[in-house]
Amino acid sequence: MTTLETTAGVLLVGLVLRDIFHTLFHPSGFGTIARSTFVSVWRGTRFAWRRGRGPELAGPAALVLVIALWALGVVGGFALVYHPRLESFTVDHGHPAATTFGTALYVSTVAVSTLGLGDVVPADGPMRTAIVLEALIGFLLLTAAISWVLQLYPALTRRRVLARSLHTLHRTRYTDHLRAGSGPSDAVLLDGLIQQLATAAVDLEQYRESYYFRESQRETALAAALPVARAVADRACAPSAHVECRRAGRRLRAELDTFQHQVADVIGASADDDPIGAYAADHEHRPFIDHAALDDA
Predict the structure, then answer these.
(1) Model pLDDT, residue 167
(2) How far are the Cα atoms of 58, 86, 218, 234, 287 from residue 53, in angstroms, in the given order?
(3) Distance in angstroms (rounded) separating the CA atoms of residues 218 and 144
(4) SS3 208
């Protein structure tokens, strides 16, 4: 029984550490626990609050839930390691500790919270080492959670800035301006859009969980604004456009294709299945420009 509990505990802690690594430190990874949690919460909130604010809460709720699951996994894993060895733990002035699993959970919770040792302490070397190791993992978990939030929300801000820029172009009828005549200054504007879109694509690759954060306002929703970028690129590539504008338009098209493939990879679709349309539908945002309008842009 001792070997079974120890093996299960080590595997559980290893699974959590692997998930943390793939979610936070792998350049394009997304851990199994994190991915399953975000997808489940996303689908659940969309189903439960079809007309409410559920989808807007899905991302933050899943973020908190993933961190909680990581912490519970570490606590439970080390508790399984401690439980069959509680005879070597003492309470207060050398009294034997209770050998219940609740005691093991208490010891593990105190250790992972990096609060130091409680009233139940290990008396032998291996368990002292395990306590120290769990405290270090607890510190890593706390640091990783804070870093995750600090890295993710700036990425969401950059995505919203791009969406608002595209919304402004749509509201000011920029495609009509390009149809009337373009010049080098338009190429400069398009290069700025390319840079923003490239940043959004890298952010989506690095933080795949950002897909499950839905904006409540349509003006800041990239899911609704992306067709505007396609319309601008198509208009800029027209034979009548300025040569620099045409070159920038082709670069914008290429960057849009890259972003489209990135979205398809996140949602598990083919690039030929219109992932941008699926993106808008999944986030329940009506695009500023529909596909029929794109043909006329």
Answers:
(1) 94
(2) 9, 47, 14, 35, 19
(3) 32
(4) helix
